[in-house]
Amino acid sequence: MTRRNVTRAEYCVIACAEAWRDNGEVLASPMGLIPSVGARLAQRTFSPGLLLTDGEALIVGADGVTEGWLPYRRHLTMVTGGRRHVMMGASQIDRFGNQNISCIGDWDRPARQLLGVRGAPVNTLNNAVSYWVPRHSPRVFVERVDMICGVGYDSAAAAGPSASRFHRIPRVVTDLGVFDFATPDHSMRLASLHPGVSVDRVREATGFALTVADEVPDTREPTAGELRLIREVIDPAGTRDREVRG
Q1: What is the DSSP string of 179-192?
Q2: Which domains does the chain have, with CATH numbers?
Q3: Fewer beta carbons within 10 Å, N or C terminal of the chain?
Q4: How large a percentage of the chain has pLDDT more than 90?
């Protein structure tokens, strides 16, 4: 437990929710338990214009009531039109935000087969994409990903304006802190630490050199109202603690 008895998982929820602040009326596509709790919290508080789905074909309100129909063709229109902010996972991610969810090892003979490329390239080239990593380690935060699925800043720049025009990675959230790419070369920067985590701990868990300021702020605490929503309304069963333990 940390200050005010806020758990590490709840700091992660807040950090994920903040990814959708000021996004307006866009489709939030959270992939993972804590990102889903974060998106629902954001919709109920500071981002009421967010659109959420039931994971299939319906748009649902904060109370779960169906508000509309979202067939796949319309979903794709929102993707290519930039009216979507995804929070995906990453089996590997590098300093410029290239993400891998396809395979570990050489493509010709991989050591492990993962999900596959899926929609990661289209997502990253057409709409905002953030990332959620529940276990921050050097195996995930690597110098170079084994295969590029989600496109990073350097890869988008190398491909030219057609790839970089709508490319944006607002943040990466892990069980240790929050990271962004607010540096001159768009390399990863430590933006905030979850309370109880040190800069040295983050560096040890990262397989490349991070940009780190002299003073790194703590991830913001949830308000009393946000804690009530998380604990009593959105996730009363405490499933968030299965993904991130204190």
Answers
A1: EE--STT---EEEE
A2: 3-243 (3.40.1080.10)
A3: N
A4: 71
